[in-house]
Write a structure and sequence with these properties.
Order of helices and strands: EEEEEEEEEEEEEEEHEEEEEH
Number of helices: 2
Helix content: 10-25%
Number of strands: 20
Shape: elongated
Largest sheet: 5 strands, antiparallel
Structural class: mainly beta
Length: 260
Amino acid sequence: MGFKKLMASMGAGGASVETELTEPNVVPGGVVQGEVRIQGGSVAQQIEGLNVGLQAQVEVETEDGEFKQNVEFTKQQVGGAFEVQPGAVHAVQFGLEIPWETPITMFMGRQLTGMHIGVVTELQIARAVDSGDLDPVNVHPLPAQQALLDAFGALGFRFRSADMEKGHIRGTRQRLPFYQEIEFHAPEQYRGLNMVELSFVADDREMDVVLEMDKKPGLFSEGSDSYRAFTVDLANFQQTDWNAYLNQWLSEVGGKRNWF
């Protein structure tokens, strides 16, 4: 869907490239299908290679503040060297695997604000690389992820925000250079709790779930955090009553700390 004239390294009269996704909706561990079409310009052009990859916009924290950074976290070569003749169209189909850790971008059928993940196309031309525009991908939750999200909703938690942060969560199976945090406002029944942050780190068999509880700051005390991490079997997650599990943990921690 993105369209970009590759003028910088190909020169005037050069080719153009367009990438179209057959189906932009996908889940972690799935495959996004698409086609890259290269339209020849007014002169023949030698293409040295063609790649497609996934790119995410993540937050980077430094001592001086925060900034956004585009991170390409998977790449696949879909074409070798070839020559595009003037006016000719060279089409290449591809199937790009979505890593299991890929953050979700859809929640309750809606796009999560601030989640920018998509397919980027790269042409290698005369020892240079030209990248096309980002073609957005809609990453829906895995069934196990949806079960936990549904449990938060059933307990009265309200979605607040989501972001992707550069870095690693200790003690998890994380391999990507960034992770996602999904934040929920706590309901009144957990009156001492401000919000909960949720992170998923999955592979093809299991998923690490990391929860961070944020206590409401009192008049003479600062807010404090409590963490919990556990593993979910992607094949057997339905054997657990997640509403009861989350409620029990929240109540136990809150009771021990006199939050509730």
